[in-house]
Each structure stands twice: as structure tokens, then as C-alpha cells.
Here is the input.
Amino acid sequence: MKTTVVRVMALIALAAALPLIVGMVLAEQGTPASPTEQGASPVASPVASPLASPVGSTVAVSIVDFAFDAPTVEIPMGTTVTWTNTGKIIHTTTSKDKLWDSAIMNPGDTFSYTFTEAGTFDYWCTLHPNMLGTIVVTP
Here is the structure.
């Protein structure tokens, strides 16, 4: 009986870890995972404005659970955006036009990119394609 309980517990632990393992393997291969997370609901925070982000400054974006805490950020050219994974699982910040790619960010990791050209830059988490963000860079 005790052996059966141990085996069942091991199977439950494996089943819980499987989505994380698959996401890591797919990320290494450059293949986006399917968004299967239940209950993921992005919460937006105020958009950074050029007045709040002088040229040469840094703007912080937190990655919380399955959302970027500021889905749209407006900044002037020369501003650095620093993403911090404050969630409990791995994520990435990757531009759709391949300007930047953080690779896998473990909880607590940061990644920064300095925007030197004006434009609108869409990005996502390659492991969780439902996690989307936009950086609007003004001249």
C-alpha cells in the first residue's frame, strides 16, 4: 500500500511539472507553446508617459504570473525598458520583429533593452503566446 501511495504521488508531481518541462523544451527549439494556463487574466497598470520617462531613463515592466503589468508603455527614444520576472514560473520577453529576445527568464531575472528608434514594437512571451505587450517609442 505504501509503495502505491508513493507511486501515485510521484505521478502527480510529474503531471504538475510536465507543462513547465514542455515549455522549456519548446523554447529551446524556438517553438511557441500553446496557451493552456487556466485563470490567466492580465491586469493593466497605468501607461508610462514621455514626461514620466525622460530620455536616457529606465522604465520597469514586471512580468506577473501570465501578464506584463503594463501591456502598453509609451517612452521617448533612448529609454531603456527593464523587464523583471516577478512571477513564479519562467517567461521570456521577445519582440515580434526579433529586435530583442531575453531567452528564458527564471523568477527574479531581469532583461533590459534600450530603444534607439521611434516606432511601435509588439512583444510577447514565447512560452505563453497569450502574454502580449507593446512599446511605443516617440521621437
Remarks:
- The beta strands are 58-64, 67-68, 72-76, 80-85, 94-95, 110-114, 119-125, 128-138.
- The chain has a mean pLDDT of 76.
- The radius of gyration is 18 Å.
